[in-house]
Amino acid sequence: MEDSKIRIGIIGAGGNTKLRHIPGFQSIDGVEIVAVCNRSEVSSQKVADEFGIPNVVSDWKEIMANPGIDAVMIGTWPNMHAELTIASLEAGKHVLTEARMARNVDEAQQMLDTSLNHPELVAQVVPSPFTLFCDKTITRIIENGDLGLIYELFVEFSTGMLANPKGLFTWRLDHELSGVNTLFSGIFHEAVLRWVKRNPEWVIADGLIGTMARKDPETGDAKTVLIPDSLSVMARYSQGFKATYLFSGLSASVQRSEMRLSGSNGALLLDLADGKLMFSPTDSNRYEEVEIPDSQRGKWQVEQEFIESIRDGRPVTHTSFKDGVEYMRFSQAVWDSWTDGSKKVWL
Length: 347
Prior knowledge:
Layout: E1 6-11, H1 15-26, E2 31-37, H2 41-51, E3 55-56, H3 61-65, E4 71-74, H4 81-90, E5 94-97, H5 105-116, E6 123-125, H6 135-143, E7 150-158, H7 175-178, H8 185-196, E8 202-208, E9 213-215, E10 222-224, E11 230-236, E12 242-248, E13 256-263, E14 266-271, E15 276-281, E16 288-289, H9 302-312, H10 321-338, E17 345-346
Parallel strand pairs: 1-2, 1-4, 2-3, 4-5, 5-6, 7-12
Antiparallel strand pairs: 7-13, 8-11, 8-17, 9-10, 11-12, 13-14, 14-15, 15-16
Helix pairs in contact: 4-5, 5-10, 6-8, 8-10
């Protein structure tokens, strides 16, 4: 770059891009969003007007061909992540892609392989945000042995977002757009990977599609649903502990969102609904809140970290393509299991 300014092109300006990424980049000195390409020229212009972006393009290839653009933010659905990422890197542009990383593990691996062929470029996946505030503390507790021998992991995220059979067909239910990504399984497992540093040895998964077809809001036609409304996963880790994951969109009640790690010395409970991390010793019948020091309390700074990696060569941690492939391996194994009679799938 001839100067210190970093110019970004946006491809796909959905909810998270407008809520977090565009404001995040525009708050950083020396960073300019210079072009946006959304699903239609009308929607692209609307985003450009809202955020003061100077250029609207109708074809994402124009962003790749523009030598004045240094980096690409990909905010599309997963079906385009691999194609756009590979094109960005081969065009000599840094890339930040929205989660989930890709539709399947093969596409994710292609993205990683391409990034390894361009080590001079930054390649980053938007991280799972839910546990950022406590990841360092949980990791410290595990590594210090405060839990003792870990016995089991339990993850639950349940909502009623799919309980209504009259609810519309969305991209999250569209296998062509979302691939093997099922409910919130991958994004929660990414957090688990930060703590235990590896995938399970095997998984057994079962899924349920409560409503077999839903109305497409764009065409009005009924579309077949191939992605489960409810998912349960059993897993075994090489460290010896077992894991149970429960994800549901059919729980028409108060949302449940919690993660538990139980060991010989006690148990950690992460209540994501209340944003609290708690610990109970083995000989106790109550949880006490864990104090998270400011020095260990993480927060959302995705855009800042991406720019710092470009400017200073800072290694990508949240989330690297290598780590993204790991959670996609889990998502792929879960999909392969539930679609093949809940067979055991080895990772």
